[in-house]
Write a structure and sequence with these properties.
Distance between the termini: 114 Å
Number of helices: 3
Largest sheet: none
Oligomer: single chain
Shape: rod-shaped
Structural class: mainly alpha
Radius of gyration: 38 Å
Number of strands: 0
Helix content: 55-70%
Amino acid sequence: MALRPSPASGIFDLSRPAWRRRLLFVGLGLLAGWLAFFDSHSLVRRVTYAHRLHVLQEENARLRAENEVLQERLAAGLSPALVERVAREQYGMRRPGETVYRVTEGE
């Protein structure tokens, strides 16, 4: 009795363990590539989110420190000298009987 080649004995004979292993590795590689780059929870997005989280946490800490400084300044109140300086510089106010001379820089 002569041996006949089976119809599946071509180049892609999946009955051989080597081809099954290759197909498994290709499938796992495609799955890993999909998860790394194209999935909604991909590794690239996770790294981007982690970096953004770190930047926002640093900014949050900076703003909290600034808020504490501003709260301390607010709790200290406004000194009369500061009120007078703001009134003169920002609002152009003057004391009674005082003459204000404005100096402008020209060419």
